[in-house]
Design a protein that fits this description.
2 copies of one chain form a homodimer.
Chain A (H helix, E strand, L loop, with lengths): L13 H8 L2 H12 L11 E2 L2 E2 L2 H14 L2 E6 L2 E6 L1 H7 L3 H8 L11
Antiparallel strand pairs in A: 1-2, 3-4
Helix pairs in contact in A: 1-3
Chain A binds a DNA duplex through helix 3.
Chain lengths: 114, 114
Amino acid sequence: MRPLFHPALEDIRPEAILYALSDPERAAIYAQLAGAAGGGTCSALGQLGDRVIPKSSLSNHFKVLRESGLILSERQGVEMRNQTRFAELDERFPGLIKAILIAYGQIPEQPKAG
Amino acid sequence: MRPLFHPALEDIRPEAILYALSDPERAAIYAQLAGAAGGGTCSALGQLGDRVIPKSSLSNHFKVLRESGLILSERQGVEMRNQTRFAELDERFPGLIKAILIAYGQIPEQPKAG
DNA sequence: TCCGTAGTTCAGAAATTCGGAACTGTTGAT
DNA sequence: ATCAACAGTTCCGAATTTCTGAACTACGGA
């Protein structure tokens, strides 16, 4: 298996982020990861609502998320642990990811501070 | 010519917004419109950098922007005036569009209030 | 070694995008 | 009224991308 490619923070392109999250299935996967503490595996996230995502499609979704810079994947034994790169990304593109998750209704809207 | 379709505010989908702006050419067009006071025409925005966008492609870009809910187009004489629906959209998806424009470097990063 | 599980790669079908050419709709001139 | 010029749309074929079942690779346990 080819080693997994992860872009360096400075190589992450906004168009890749938007493209990756413009697919509701991928956005839902990402949102799950953003919520899950441990780092989700592919199979754990393979069922969204009533549809079972075929595993080749799922693998591709993770690849798109990974190569866009949204997530970090590393093999751990027989499975793959995935976690978001939220903190890094929020530094590079302030407010972007949070605004997207809010737009999708995956996290409640933030009240203004103060 | 078919009448131009514009989605109602409540029908606008985040995936459509992200998809529309995941194309750097469309994002640049949108950013120009967001900056231009008057409402830009297709031909006025048909040249970005060194590339001349073919007019059928340009027409399609505007269609995608329009049908995603990002812009409002209306015929004015022989040409088409386009303007953003920024205010509306910002109400529906708070912070989203601004964060995207910032990510693309099209507007300077906003300082935190206070 | 052999088996089961997790995920990747391959390959062909289906869907999408791109853009040149033809077309529509509007204005202004004769 | 007719014509020409112009802005933008639609059509359609070529190229690209996406989707997913099937085959495959990688790891761990017995």
